[in-house]
Amino acid sequence: MKAVLCILSILLALTATLVTGNQMNMDDSSKKPGYGKKGGGKGGKKGDCANSTTSVPYIQAFSPQIKAHTLDTRAAFVNADTTQGDWQFQGKVFRAWETQQPSTVPLNRFLTQVNQDYIFSTISSVSGYDANGVVGYVYPTQICDSVPLLGAYNQAAGDHYYTTDVGEHNSLTSSGWSDAGISGYVLPLHDCSCKS
Ligand SMILES: *[C@@H]1O[C@H](CO)[C@@H](O)[C@H](O)[C@H]1NC(C)=O
């Protein structure tokens, strides 16, 4: 009987270690809200924030040829159009940084050759998609007056569309698009007194 109790208590101790270990892993991943996951909560010390004055606008463009929306700086699209693209500007969507800043992480772009669909996320890999570069730097959680960059997915067309406008996102999800989660946390356009 004593031996059984002893084995039981060893098992309990092992289980406790495993549970604690899992919680640690969960804490780690919640710092990096990925594609399709809700993340964050407000917080962050002001001192850890990136300088909003040095952020730049990111533009959404659409290619009729490949029926795809994508995000980048205006200069990146100008350059792509001059060489081979047919990207039409759809307007500014948010502000972020072109180089790494305090508390920011890369906003990765992923592309699937299957139907030329682009995905944006702070996670480092997306199943079925190839890494296609870093377009900018954003916050991994909702800190420093940032807002969620919301993704919507049109499965029939194989097209992802991104917005910080909750109303616009809701309009799309009520017209057949699915919610593709939060890509990262960006600065809203209207909160900045920057020139561009
Ligand atoms: C933010 O960047 C601007 C422009 O480079 C600079 O003038 C300002 O001093 C910076 N602010 C801080 C808090 O570093």
TrEMBL record:
Pfam families tied to this protein: DUF5648
Region ranges (Disordered): 23-48
Domain DUF5648 positions: 59-187
Keywords: Signal
Record's signal peptide: 1-21
Protein name stated in the entry: DUF5648 domain-containing protein
Organism placement in taxonomy: Eukaryota, Fungi, Dikarya, Basidiomycota, Agaricomycotina
